[in-house]
């Protein structure tokens, strides 16, 4: 009979590409974000929390992948206005909402407006292994500060975040300037200051090609700058169509880092310096191993002197490749200024470095760009890779107001940074469970609850077993699964005698693993104590553990 | 020319019904949630964070307003599967995702599973003043605990949350049991234990009518129980169609609180007790003022004795009105048990009370229900009203698995509770801004940054002014808008002499308001100190403020 047919049950499944976070996943991320917020606060940044939902028009087409404007977001139309409702969407980053806020509250906020924001963002992309459609970002931005001092400040603050998270000596922050690339593009004839909108498509292709250097290598990038590139699957990506001469000019930028490194190498060789054979010098390591490209060149300099020398060589080379371009020279000048400000603040020159190989894929950057990488103790790239990136974007607010508002900021990839932190701290993931008060006698539930309350009042995490108490073995299994350090047991007999059994579950587990019968007897994992000494006995066990 | 026409600028607006949170709005809420999480943790609850997005089928039709199943959520269809994509939606509460998690991970989790969750939820409703479409919830639930000890624990924990937030003496938690109402419905002939699905629609109307008592009053509820009700606007709401006799039976439940209060009144009168004339007794106040209904009857008892007496009278009355109904008697028994457990834990009987007027609008509750209200010092209702509510819902997980899983939990209305806390603490909203290092000489930016870094290293929140430094007045206006306590000033002259000007902006503002010329001179708000004494001088000012 149709009427009695059971309705199909809904599937109990996290939607594709989303995930659930349990226990330590939540608390460890929170602890990390609290530390970061503390640093941001100390630098004068104020928190801002916008809602998850924005109008699609406010989000605009500034999606990370400019190949597909308007794709990649979760969007829907307001339904109660006869088909004319606004299109709403989940934010895909924290920068677009900031641009909206800076425009909307431009008369109320104190500018320069330093703000930080942390929270989930959403991308409507094909989920894959380790690729989620909701993830956390943690941003700090300064809106309304035209000077590159604001960019330097963000880099310094980022360094302090890593130091405070206990990653001292295990990170590197690389700074570059888009204007240098613009200068190179001008020299290569694909940027005309008199007609900025010409060659826009070509410049977009060049930018994305350079950003893919790590994956495609030099030949792949060259192909994309020229006619195009066919990948292993046979798919063809159209190139920028540049001439060989133009490609050569762009490649002088792409290969800037290795060219500067070679010059440094020759310089130190001529001076007979020990720098290039120092074991801890990743530049030297890279050179010895013949490696090229960003990933093997942390470019870490060892002393203020070598760092200064590196800066000099970098500036000289960059001035060469930007030739007569005004914007290019401006970019080089800004990089120098950032380096000076950071040096004056005492930032170790091997932590924040000028690195011409940094590009950042996003189209909207207009000046300094920066990214941070977690390294091993020797400053070499680790498997965690880039954990933060940002730069100056002077045009985002202009979309709303028509007036250019200078802005710069960084976004920390929370999940990657957390993974790096966890790998760094061994004891992670082993959060201790609560003390479990077992239930021997259902009628005495109120007394068990009172025991737990007493423990909590003493600051000890505690709970009463609230499942079906019939099978006592299940209660101990539960305590084990919860990671409980101690179980409290009081049956009718113990209650009559005014005592409780206190069971040390950590010791018990250890003894079960390998203790001899003698040990079992000499160090009992379970002992009887007077009811009024319960809290003291448990505290003793917890302090021992 | 169409080509050169400027594109229409997007509106810089928060979408309708959403809002932005700035500075203290964010930090004060965070501090409150941190305190709540601390209490939950101590009770053995573990954090869970699910994503904002669920499949629509997992959310189900358990929306708060059962009149409109499936309405009220923000939903969209996955677009990349030829029109057959899943429907996704933003979660409308934290309970539906918990039910999904409890079913999905039923083999991995340790049951009973105590979890807490905090985060935004979304409702696709018409926005109105103070009505937002995204707001925070903060929930604690126990899944897999059949005993009402779990409900008692949630109530105790809720009381501890309020105590720890500094609201001791300013809250009241009311507990009732749906089974009592079910018993009354059975007696009134609209619940047949042998055929539970009969009269479902009628019971839904009755439930919602009772929950609207505060707004509609006794006559309004009676109308909805009978033929229906026409409101001032002329709209007609259909009633449950009960007979006068049935309505009378239901109204004995609706008026339980005032009936019990009257009986208590007569009881104390007969005993000649001072209780009914005690000024602090809101029950007495309500009776004197002739008030009826929930909002004027906090029902707070003054002593363990009077509280015991109240419980006895309540139990007796409830047993009367549930007559021969088994489920009704069970409900009364459970209420008694909860009261006993809480008393054994030493919860003040005037903080957590049995109150038959509590119903809770949600259809899914199956046993104990509870809600918390912020009161004034005398225990009387305050403008903040109900700030938390919850109850037992034994059928939510069953939707997925077919097996009944007992569960109970509470949801705290974060915004309301925060408003109550802010009203309680005077100094709220006046977060102190950072020390502002002004820029007199653009070429010395690196040195200004170094000053700010020095202050931060000493634990003092500090920032450099990063706007256009030309107009110095603007810099001081900025410092004022930021709530900066101190401004640091160093021009060329000061730099040459190795000093800085330290300006006490708090004192300065006070003096500008009302100081005489003499005072201005005797207590200068700005003084010159040697550069190396800058940090000490500023610390002194901050400690004074």
Largest interface: A-B, 103 and 103 residues
Distance between the termini of chain A: 62 Å
Structural class of chain A: alpha+beta
Strand content of chain A: 15-25%
Number of helices of chain A: 20
Query: In oligomeric terms, what are we looking at?
Result: homodimer
Mind describing the biggest β-sheet of chain A?
Answer: 8 strands, mixed
Q: State mean pLDDT of chain A (0 to 100 scale).
A: 85
> Percentage of helical residues of chain A?
40-55%
User: Strand arrangement, largest sheet of chain A?
Assistant: 2-6-7-14-13-12-8-11
Shape of chain A: elongated
Question: What topology emerges from the helices and strands here?
Answer:
The structure is a homodimer of 545-residue chains.
Chain A: E1 21-22, H1 23-42, E2 46-49, E3 53-55, H2 56-59, E4 75-77, E5 87-90, H3 95-104, E6 113-122, E7 134-143, H4 149-164, E8 171-177, H5 178-187, H6 200-211, H7 213-225, E9 228-230, E10 236-238, H8 244-254, H9 256-271, H10 282-288, H11 304-322, H12 326-344, E11 352-354, E12 368-375, E13 381-392, H13 398-401, E14 407-413, H14 414-424, E15 435-437, H15 445-457, E16 462-464, H16 472-481, E17 486-489, H17 492-497, E18 499-504, H18 505-514, H19 517-522, E19 526-530, H20 534-544
């Amino acid at each position: 009979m149709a009427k009695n047919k059971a309705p199909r049950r809904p599937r109990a499944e996290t939607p594709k590409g989303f995930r659930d976070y349990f226990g330590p996943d939540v608390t460890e991320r929170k602890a990390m974000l609290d530390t970061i917020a503390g640093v941001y606060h100390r630098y004068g940044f104020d928190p801002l929390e916008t809602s998850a939902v924005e109008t699609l028009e406010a989000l605009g087409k500034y999606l990370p992948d400019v190949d597909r404007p308007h794709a990649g977001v979760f969007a829907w139309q307001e339904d109660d206005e006869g088909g004319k409702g606004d299109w709403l969407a989940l934010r895909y980053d924290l920068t677009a909402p900031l641009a909206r806020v800076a425009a909307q509250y431009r008369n109320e906020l104190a500018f320069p407006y330093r703000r930080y924001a942390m929270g989930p963002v959403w991308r409507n992309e094909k989920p894959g292994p380790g690729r989620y459609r909701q993830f956390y970002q943690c941003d700090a931005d300064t809106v309304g500060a035209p000077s590159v001092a604001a960019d330097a400040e963000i880099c310094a603050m980022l360094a302090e975040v890593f130091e405070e998270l206990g990653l001292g000596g295990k990170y590197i922050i690389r700074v570059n300037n888009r204007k240098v690339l613009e200068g190179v593009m001008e020299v290569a004839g694909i940027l005309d200051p008199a007609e900025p909108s010409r060659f826009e498509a070509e410049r977009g292709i060049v930018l994305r090609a350079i950003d893919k250097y790590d994956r495609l290598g030099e030949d792949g990038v060259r192909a994309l700058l020229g006619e195009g590139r066919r990948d292993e699957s046979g798919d063809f990506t159209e190139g920028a169509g540049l001439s060989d001469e133009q490609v050569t000019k762009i490649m002088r930028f792409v290969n800037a880092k290795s060219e500067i490194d070679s010059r440094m190498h020759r310089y130190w060789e001529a001076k007979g310096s020990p720098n290039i054979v120092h074991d801890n010098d990743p530049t030297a390591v890279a050179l010895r191993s013949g490696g090229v490209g960003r990933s093997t060149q942390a470019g870490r300099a060892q002393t203020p002197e070598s760092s200064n020398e590196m800066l000099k060589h970098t500036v000289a080379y960059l001035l060469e490749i930007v030739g007569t371009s005004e914007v290019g020279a401006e970019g080089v000048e800004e990089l120098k200024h950032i380096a000076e400000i950071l040096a004056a603040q005492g930032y170790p020159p091997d932590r924040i470095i000028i690195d011409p190989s940094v590009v950042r894929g996003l189209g909207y950057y207009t000046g300094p760009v920066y990214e941070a990488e977690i390294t091993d103790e020797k400053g070499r790239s680790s498997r965690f890779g880039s954990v933060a990136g940002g730069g100056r974007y002077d045009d985002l607010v202009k979309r709303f107001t028509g007036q250019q508002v200078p802005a710069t900021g960084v976004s920390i990839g929370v999940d990657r940074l957390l993974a790096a932190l966890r790998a760094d701290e061994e004891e992670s993931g082993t959060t201790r469970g609560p003390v479990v008060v077992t239930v021997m006698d259902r009628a005495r539930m109120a007394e068990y609850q009172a025991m737990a309350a007493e423990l909590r009042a003493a600051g000890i995490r505690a709970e009463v077993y609230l499942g079906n108490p019939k099978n006592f073995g299940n209660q101990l299994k539960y305590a084990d699964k919860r990671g409980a350090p101690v179980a409290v047991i009081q049956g009718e007999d113990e209650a009559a005698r005014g005592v409780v059994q206190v069971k040390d579950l950590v010791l018990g587990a250890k003894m079960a693993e390998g203790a001899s019968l003698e040990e079992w007897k000499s160090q009992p994992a379970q002992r009887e104590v007077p009811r009024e000494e319960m809290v003291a006995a448990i505290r003793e066990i917890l302090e021992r553990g």
